[in-house]
Amino acid sequence: MAPAYDAVVFDNDGVLIEPTDRGRLARAVSEAFAAFDVTVDEACAREMVAADAVPDGDFEREYGIDPARFWERREAVASEYQREAIRSGEKALYDDSDAVTALPHRTGLVSNNQHATIEFILDYHDLGRHFETAYGRVPTIEGARRKKPDPSYIEAALDDLGTRSALYVGDSEKDVVAAQRAGIDAAFVRRDHRADLDLSATPTYEVADLYELADRLGVRIE
To answer: What's the Cα-to-Cα distance from 121 to each of 5, 46, 64, 66, 82, rounded to whole Å?
Structure first.
């Protein structure tokens, strides 16, 4: 028997749309530094992207830049770089993203990407009408600290949907952990870019794509 959920909440990057090229994100970091007359090499920028950490007091002492002002600039530039990638087709929707439209469940979206980027994707691809609620990270240091594996944004989406009978669908260990911390089930989508990823957190389901997810939920896609 297919599991019964009131709602299904999706991650974005790596689930509905292709991940952003790390080189673009590194260029966004470099451009943010340049706005404060600081130059960093590509290796440093890529390390910052890979670390996925917000700046703190050590950052201010090293670079002489207010962390909050830098982060706001970095978020704005990163969002614009991603919009360019979406418009060019470099960052494209997965073919199976249409599975979302076939689900009878209430649906939401929660991403670690910037909220402005999420809003653009939903508008550009006319997906907003398929989601009752959507959250990306607020473009502040505090907003970034609440991103997954912190469950805050997932919990906010569940409050909007009025249920805790829900499944969260993601493509990373952070997604699985965030769902578990929110007290809901997790589905891990093992796309090609996650083929060799070893998870230390165990998802409720593991699927190859969103069509398999729909099948697990008892939904037939013609």
So the answer is: 26, 24, 34, 30, 10
Structure tokens at 209: 């794509």
Looking at residue 36, its pLDDT comes to: 97
pLDDT score of 1: 61
Decide: 26 and 116 in contact? Cβ < 8 Å: no
**Rounded to two decimals, what is the model's pTM?**
0.95
Residue with tokens 């669908």, as numbered in its chain: 169
- What is the pLDDT, as a whole number, of residue 120? 98
Cα–Cα distance measured from residue 66 to residue 55, given in angstroms and rounded to the nearest whole number: 9
**Short-list 56, 90, 54, CA closest to 74:** 54
Residue-wise pLDDT tens digits, 168-189 = 999 999 999 999 999 999 999 9
Name the more confident of 136 and 220: 136
